[in-house]
Backbone:
């Protein structure tokens, strides 16, 4: 501790605080941290030990946090922690709040997971409604769904499947780890009233391999599907 | 066998009157609240606690007797007991007989009464340990009650590229709901009081896991069945036992027509425990 | 250098950090402060300046915040700021407390936590009773329990385990920190097999006699067990 080295950010203000002041400081810190809104002096006073000098405690805290990544700031007669203004570039980098997947997207994703390789028509058959274009786009954008190949049937429909990052996100080692009817039922996800012939497919796919009924997708297919907008024109 | 939903059956008042008349009014009427217990093992643990000794030192014999007494009382007032209470009663009656019979030379035909008793004591101890662990867990400082996260979070983190959030639970419940919705059928079958093959099979495997030599299980079991369930229990248990024989998990023997059916676990069974 | 005064809470770890380390520290602080959820090392590394020693920075931060009202805690490979547990009495909020768990759910949660990865059949073996519907899904909805994978045994039963937010919720760094887990393991109580030294002494009883340690079951016991004699119902 030769020189007051620069990491000594939380160092001294004026004179040493008493033990009860330190405790009050800790309480104020915790309250300010946990609160959704700036806290008034009155509010803090109510909760800090009696007889401590609130102004002094707040002043000490402000100084202690001044150089750090988080600052204690004063807004009129209220106090709040805020990330340091000069670091806003780090914080705001991924501005977009995580969006909840829509119910439709969840359903489509689940169908793709369980029934893969599955075509769009099959998804619609299972859901009983048309799937809007945006739904699949969302799942693709999330990186959870991919085109697998083309089914060797008339019309050569494109087959869909999940990606490794799907497994990663949902904490599955392999697609076969998805729970079956019995487990869904035991977990309370399926109610007791299901027809006796109710089945949940057990996807037996290993990774990227195509099944015998699938052909690989070619560059041509991709353009044809409107996935690559040729010449930068937007899709649809 | 949804034991968690056992309800204590209300006894009609006039029945109580009749009973009281028959028994003499001195004997108090009993209302048994089995619903307070999470199954037979829970009840046994509760009974074992009354012995006030380490679970490794309990008297399994008297525990078995207490349990059987409990079941007796319940049946006397015609409480509908879930099947697994009765299965446990049958098993304990069997255990009791093994404990009381003088020690035989130990063949290789399954566990001795002592071993069965030790297993039971172990299971009780393990259940109790988990109960204590649960209590300790729930009394820890918990997030959102004792310990708090930032009250005014500024961004939501942990998104690698994709800005979408969904848990496996969301995914599975969406799928289950969808499939169920699509599978709406008008099949609403009135539930009959029937022992399904699956239930009977489960019951048999549970019991046989601990029984080695020839045993007329049905007899033990049926004794504890309400009359109305005896036929279905017998039929299902029989069918299930045939299935188990076919799979090599059970051997059966019968002296002649209408004689008791004896069952046992195959002697040289590949150590395939039914469940573990 | 002589006395480290007591308010010097945020003082040194081992050696003086470089300027770039201090900056990285500030950024980490800001990111962690801003987030309500624990942040993974991978996430932090993506955002901190290249080449800094993350482990060292996190260690410094943990030490610096150790005595304060807000602590930096580790949950597996993630970090989060949380109010200090000893201040619970000041800021404890009972409203909004997480849904009260049923006894069965709590028991199942404990079994999953201590025995994981565990199958449903094993849970039922331990409890001696089927798990009713709604128990598991309450735990999954709370985000504490998840499907982990499948056991490599015939039938490939699905296994259950706890989530990182289970650890976060109960203030555990990792599963090894579960209260009493080592003792339970040593006692063989976390296994499906009865430990070899577990024996029940058998009184050589010839009949129904009770040993000295036993009391006969009495009418009182029966009442206590929930065999309630409704006062006077019989006489009415």
Residues:
């Amino acid at each position: 501790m030769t020189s007051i080295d620069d990491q000594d950010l939380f160092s001294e203000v004026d004179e040493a605080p008493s033990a009860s002041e330190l405790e009050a400081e800790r309480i104020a810190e915790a309250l300010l941290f946990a609160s959704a809104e700036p806290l008034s002096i009155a509010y803090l006073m109510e909760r800090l030990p009696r007889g401590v000098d609130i102004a002094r405690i707040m002043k000490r805290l402000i100084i202690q946090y001044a150089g750090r990544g988080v600052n204690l700031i004063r807004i009129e007669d209220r106090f709040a922690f805020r990330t340091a203004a000069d670091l806003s570039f780090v914080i705001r980098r991924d501005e977009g709040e995580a969006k909840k997947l829509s119910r439709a997207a969840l359903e489509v994703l689940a169908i793709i997971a369980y029934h893969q390789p599955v075509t769009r028509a099959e998804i619609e058959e299972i859901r009983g409604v048309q799937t809007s274009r945006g739904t699949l786009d969302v799942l693709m954008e999330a990186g959870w769904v991919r085109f697998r190949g083309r089914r060797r049937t008339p019309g050569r429909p494109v087959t869909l499947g999940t990606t490794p990052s799907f497994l990663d996100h949902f904490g599955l080692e392999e697609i076969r780890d998805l729970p079956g009817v019995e487990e869904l039922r035991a977990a309370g996800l399926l109610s007791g009233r299901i027809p006796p012939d109710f089945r949940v497919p057990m996807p037996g796919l290993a990774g990227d391999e195509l099944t015998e009924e699938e052909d690989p997708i070619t560059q041509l297919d991709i353009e044809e599907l409107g996935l690559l907008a040729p010449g930068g024109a937007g899709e649809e | 066998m949804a034991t968690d939903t056992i309800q204590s059956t209300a006894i009609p008042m006039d029945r109580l009157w009749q009973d009281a008349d028959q028994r003499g009014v001195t004997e108090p009427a009993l209302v048994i609240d089995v619903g307070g217990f999470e199954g037979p093992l829970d009840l046994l643990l509760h009974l074992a606690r009354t012995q006030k000794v380490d679970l490794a030192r309990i008297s399994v014999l008297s525990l078995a007797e207490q349990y059987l007494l409990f079941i007796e009382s319940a049946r006397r007032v015609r409480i509908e007991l879930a099947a697994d209470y009765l299965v446990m009663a049958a098993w304990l009656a069997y255990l009791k007989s093994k404990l009381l019979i003088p020690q035989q030379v130990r063949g290789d035909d399954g566990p001795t009464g002592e071993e069965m008793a030790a297993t039971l004591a172990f299971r009780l101890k393990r259940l109790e340990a988990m109960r204590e662990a649960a209590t300790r867990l729930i009394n820890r400082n918990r997030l959102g009650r004792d310990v708090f996260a930032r009250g005014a979070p500024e961004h939501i983190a942990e998104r690698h590229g994709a800005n979408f959030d969904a848990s496996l639970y969301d995914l599975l419940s969406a799928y289950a709901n969808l499939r169920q919705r699509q599978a709406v059928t008008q099949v609403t079958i009135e539930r009959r009081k029937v022992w399904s093959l699956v239930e009977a099979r489960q019951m048999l495997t549970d019991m046989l896991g601990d029984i080695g030599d020839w045993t007329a299980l049905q007899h033990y079991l049926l004794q504890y069945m309400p009359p109305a369930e005896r036929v279905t229990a017998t039929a299902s248990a029989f069918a299930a036992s045939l299935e188990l024989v076919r799979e090599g998990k059970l051997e059966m023997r019968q002296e002649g027509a209408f004689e008791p059916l004896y069952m046992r676990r195959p002697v040289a069974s590949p150590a395939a425990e039914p469940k573990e």
Remarks:
- Chain A touches chain C through 54 residues (CB under 8 Å).
